[in-house]
Structures are given as structure tokens and as C-alpha cells.
Design a protein that fits this description.
The complex is a heterodimer of chains A (about 325) and B (about 240). Chain A has helices at about 25-40, 55-60, 65-80, 85-100, 105-115, 120-130, 135-145, 150-155, 160-170, 180-185, 200-215, 225-245, 250-260, 270-275, 295-325. Chain A has about 325 residues and is mainly α. Chain A starts with about 25 loop residues before the first helix and ends in a 5-residue tail after the last helix. In chain B, helix 1 (about 1-20) crosses helix 2. Chains A and B meet through helix 12 of A and helix 7, helix 9 and helix 11 of B.
Chain lengths: ~325, ~240
């Protein structure tokens, strides 16, 4: 079932460099997210961390990661008013399903906390659910206990991950285990290095630094001015690059970053190519064309880029609509 | 054409050598050659254009007559035809302009009246395609027109590069990412010439990087050395744009 037809190319939309890039049609941007959410909704069982009764515990822990991403992005999808009632309703159903069926009302998170008390993963997954009104006293007790340990603050993690933990602590209401300014300064992006050195891994570091600084797009003002200016300068060079490579997963995340900037470009040429990469059923390939395989294999390959496509779409639609009604830049 | 590419390679290497070492060796003009070799050398001079005179321009030395003669001969032998590309026309214009600047004051022909044939240097070719080009194509085109990127450049091309320096900076990023060293070196040279690189671009380390990775190609080395020379001698330290 396809609710929104794939976009037709818009002729005559050649950018004039003297007036900046042409922004994409909000309807085109919205269509990407609408189709992506429809796909995620249809394939929601793919998020189950224990797809079989005998799925090994180790695999169950690995399969919590997609639910965490679903929670963080699903919350934004649900909260954004411009998402439209159908999209918001589906997002809420996805989150409900994830909490009740897949996380067993939070009991799976508590189980993992007992298995690996110092793993931040259950806490990171729990925070967005809690913000949506779901709750598990046991998960919270475990989190507060662990947070008091020196070991929690001493956890060795990439600076961007440490920044994320500081953000989740703030969102949960716990004292930060690292000074937020210090956490930003330790990231690659915080140092504003040579933009021509960006590769795939640095690229994901950049996008996640922005996600954490903006509470996953909910608070674009969270971007420090120097970082916002740096991104406004160099983001077009990176989007151009990953568009040409056809790396839709990172391109989608870069489009999220664009939508978090004070003056998002929402570039028509980039969004049209992104939309064209999406399959008619809403799935977004990670790179190149859609993979082949059984349902589970395909889900594992495309759930992330599809979530990201929905994420980029909802934020960019919101910004595009905001600019149409004269939202201050 | 392999012979010609070899001759261009050799000539560019000579220019690089003089720029790098700052010595007083002559470029191209030393030693008489005849026949095919002479023809090849003139063609190579035409291909490299005004950059044959780059040591004179950058090191502020008096021009060497044999080199000037070669450049004049190249202009005479290969005037741009009616269907010439914009790049060819601009390259010819740059040669004319450079010869005039080096042999006269205020663009007036020298004593011998040896003013190059063709359009007078005040009449500049069209730049509208550069002005309207997306930043990716702009950078590609500017790299081809790198010989125009000299200190105090006042051509219409330089004006576009100056006005669109952020676009050229993005082009530099793109070119390095794509390992297109010639384009990266050309973009870097333009940014040095128009002092247009934002501080966060890291142009100086970028030029070192490009030279290290792509400098085996003398055309890359030529652009890079020219850029580094301009950065090093720029009284403003090359920082003409905000970070």
C-alpha cells in the first residue's frame, strides 16, 4: 500500500548560485517521511529483539540498538505537529508496540541492566520513552544507582558518545557526569577541524554530535554559534559528496543536520535525489540500490536509513513550513 | 600527443623547480632547440600559458628575454580561434596581460612596440558562465584558469573567484575528498590569490597535503607552490575571510 506517490522531477529548478540553492518543495520532503513511516509501521515486528524463542541473549542485547533509534526518532516524529495526523498516529503506534511488546513494558531494559550494569544502552533507550510518558520504576532505580558509581563517569567512550550520555543525563534529570562544554570540546566537530578530512566515520561523528547538541532536532538552538557557522559553510560540500557516492544513510543524517541549522538550505537538488533513491514502498537503501535477501536480512539493512529518512523529512518539513509562514531564522 | 604531454610535464617541472628553490635558473629559454623539439616547446608554452612567466611574476624579477620570446611565439602560433573555449580565450588573455605587464608600464606597449596581437587586454572575455555555474563546476573551471590566480589579480575571473570564495572553498573540500589533486591545487591557488579562504578551511595544511599527495604531477606542484608563495608573502597572512 502506497499512500504518497513517488515524486516527479521538477523541471526548471536549476539553482542560481547568486541567490543560493533552490529549496525543495515541502510536499516532496514530506512525502519521503510519509512513505518511510508507512514502511516502518508495516515492518514494526522487525524491531523485535527476540524474534525467535531461542534467540541468544547476546543477540537480544545487540537488537536493542534499533529500538533505541526508533525511540529517539519516533519521539520526534510523534511530537512534530506538521507530521500530519496519520504519520503521528503511526509513530505513536510504533512506539506503543515497541514499549509494550518488544521491551515488555521496560522489563527487557531492566533485565539488561542486571546483566550489564555499566552498559549505558538501557538508559539511553529509556529516556525518550520516559519523555513520552512511559515509565518503569525498576529501570529508573537501576539507572540512578549506576549513575552514582565512579565507574559510570569513568566509562571509556568516544567523545561523541560521552556527549550523548551527558545529554541523556540532562534529559533524565541526573547531574551531568561530564561538563557539557568539555564534552563538546572533546568531539571532532567541537574542534572545527579541516573540513576536507571528513570521511565516513568522521561524518557519523559529526551528525551524532549535532543530534546530541540539539536533543535530536527538538532544540536547534542547542548548537553553539561557532559550530552552526562551521556547518553552514561546509555541509554543502559533504552532502554533495555523499549524494554522488549514493550513501543515503549518511546523506539522510546530513539532511537532519541541515534542518537543525539556523538557515537550513533544504536543497532541492539533494532532496530530489534522496527521494528518488527511496523505494516505492518507502524503504530507503543504505547505499546504492536496495539489497536482496529474505525479509529479516532486508530489514536489518534498511531499517536505519529508513528511520533516518523519516527523521530528516519531519524536521525539514517543519523548517520548510516554518519559513513559509515567516518563522524567524 | 604523448610527446606534447611530456614537454608540458618537463616545462611545468622547470617552473616548479625555480619556484621551489627560488634560484635564478632560466625557465624554458635556456639553450637553443630546433625542428620538432622547438615546435613541441612552443606548444608546451602555449599549454602552460602565463605560468611560464610565473617565477618572474612571483619573484618580482626582470623578465628574461628568451622566455618572453617563447611566450610571444606561442601566442602568435596559437591564437584563439572563433570557436575557442572560454578557457582558451582566457588563457590567451592572461598571456597577453602578463607580457604587457612585464614589459611596459600601465599596459602600454614596450619600446619596440611589441604588443601582442589579439584583443587588447582591457577587453576581457566573458565570465557570465562562471558567474552562473554551480560551485562544483565553478571550481573545476577555475582550476583550469589557475594561471590567472596571481597576486593582485584584477581580471574579471579573479573578481568572480573573490566574490564566490566560499564556493571555491567548498570546491577545495570536494576536490580533496575526491583526490582530484589538480583541481584542489587550482582552487587553493585561487583562494590564496584572492585571500578568500575561511580560517576553518585549513588552507595552509591543505596545500601541504595536496602537494604531498599529488605533487608528483608538476601541474599540481606548480599550483601548490604558487599558492604557498602567495600565502607566505601575503602581509595579511592570507586570512582575508572570517573563520
Amino acid at each position: 500500500m502506497i499512500e504518497t506517490p513517488p515524486p516527479e522531477p521538477r523541471p526548471g529548478a536549476r539553482p542560481d548560485p547568486r541567490s543560493g540553492p533552490v529549496p525543495a518543495d515541502p510536499a516532496l520532503i514530506h512525502g519521503v517521511g510519509d512513505r518511510a513511516v508507512a514502511w516502518l509501521h508495516r515492518h514494526r515486528d522487525g524491531f523485535h529483539p527476540r524474534p525467535e524463542a531461542d534467540t541468544p541473549d547476546r543477540e537480544v542485547r545487540d537488537r536493542l540498538k534499533p529500538i533505541g533509534e526508533l525511540a529517539l526518532i519516533g519521539k520526534v516524529l510523534f511530537r512534530e505537529g506538521v507530521a500530519g495526523s496519520r504519520q503521528a498516529a503511526r509513530s505513536r503506534q510504533l512506539l506503543d508496540h515497541a514499549w509494550r511488546e518488544q521491551l515488555d513494558g521496560g522489563r527487557l531494559l531492566a533485565w539488561m541492566q542486571r546483566e550489564e550494569p555499566l552498559s549505558p544502552i538501557p538508559f539511553e533507550i529509556y529516556v525518550p520513552f520516559r519523555e513520552l510518558g512511559y515509565s518503569s520504576p525498576e529501570v529508573e532505580e537501576n539507572a540512578r544507582l549506576t549513575h552514582r558509581l565512579d565507574s559510570w563517569a569513568a566509562l571509556e567512550a568516544l567523545p561523541v558518545r560521552r556527549l550523548g550520555l551527558a545529554a541523556f543525563e540532562r534529559r533524565f534529570g541526573l547531574p551531568a557526569s561530564i561538563d557539557p562544554g568539555e564534552a563538546v570540546g572533546a568531539t571532532w566537530l567541537g574542534r572545527l577541524p579541516e573540513p576536507w578530512t571528513v570521511g565516513l566515520h568522521i561524518g557519523y561523528g559529526i551528525t551524532h554530535t549535532v543530534f546530541h547538541l540539539t536533543d535530536w532536532g527538538e532544540n536547534p538552538d542547542g548548537l553553539p554559534t561557532d559550530i552552526a557557522e562551521y556547518l553552514a559553510r561546509w555541509l554543502p560540500a559533504w552532502t554533495d559528496d555523499w549524494l554522488e557516492i549514493g550513501h543515503w544513510d549518511l546523506l539522510g543524517e546530513l539532511l537532519v543536520v541541515d534542518a537543525c541549522l539556523p538557515r537550513p538550505a533544504l536543497e532541492d537538488q539533494v532532496w530530489r535525489a534522496f527521494a528518488a533513491a527511496q523505494a516505492p514502498d518507502g524503504a530507503m537503501p543504505a547505499q546504492g540500490p536496495l539489497p536482496e535477501g529474505d525479509g529479516r536480512e532486508i530489514f536489518d539493512e534498511v531499517y536505519h536509513p529508513t528511520l533516518v529518512a523519516a527523521f530528516a523529512s519531519v524536521l525539514a518539513t517543519s523548517r520548510a513550513m516554518g519559513s513559509l509562514i515567516g518563522e524567524p531564522a | 600527443m604523448k610527446q606534447l604531454s611530456g614537454a608540458i610535464h618537463d616545462l611545468a617541472s622547470e617552473v616548479v623547480s625555480v619556484l621551489r628553490d627560488g634560484d635564478h635558473r632560466s625557465v624554458a629559454g635556456a639553450g637553443a632547440v630546433r625542428g620538432d623539439e622547438a615546435v613541441l616547446r612552443v606548444a608546451a608554452v602555449r599549454a602552460l600559458g602565463a605560468d611560464v612567466l610565473l617565477p618572474t611574476t612571483l619573484l618580482r624579477r626582470p623578465p628574461e628575454e628568451p622566455v618572453l620570446a617563447l611566450v610571444r611565439e606561442a601566442m602568435r602560433t596559437y591564437p584563439p580561434g572563433p570557436d575557442a573555449s572560454s578557457a582558451t580565450v582566457w588563457s590567451h588573455w592572461a598571456m597577453e596581460r602578463t607580457v604587457l605587464r612585464l614589459t611596459s608600464t600601465d599596459g602600454v606597449p614596450d619600446r619596440g612596440g611589441r604588443r601582442p596581437t589579439g584583443a587588447p587586454p582591457t577587453a576581457q572575455p566573458d565570465v557570465s558562465d562562471l558567474e552562473s555555474a554551480p560551485w562544483q563546476r565553478l571550481t573545476h573551471q577555475l582550476a583550469v584558469l589557475g594561471a590567472l590566480a596571481v597576486p593582485e589579480a584584477d581580471s574579471a575571473v579573479a573578481e568572480v573567484a573573490r566574490r564566490r570564495s566560499l564556493d571555491v572553498s567548498r570546491g577545495f573540500v570536494r576536490a580533496v575528498r575526491r583526490r582530484d589533486w589538480f583541481q584542489a591545487a587550482g582552487a587553493g591557488r585561487w583562494l590564496a590569490a584572492v585571500r578568500g579562504a575561511p580560517g576553518t578551511l585549513g588552507l595552509d595544511t591543505g596545500l601541504d597535503f595536496v602537494l604531498h599527495m599529488g605533487g608528483a604531477d608538476p601541474r599540481v606542484a606548480l599550483h601548490t607552490h604558487a599558492a604557498r608563495w602567495m600565502r607566505a608573502t601575503d602581509p595579511g597572512g592570507g586570512e582575508g575571510a572570517p573563520s
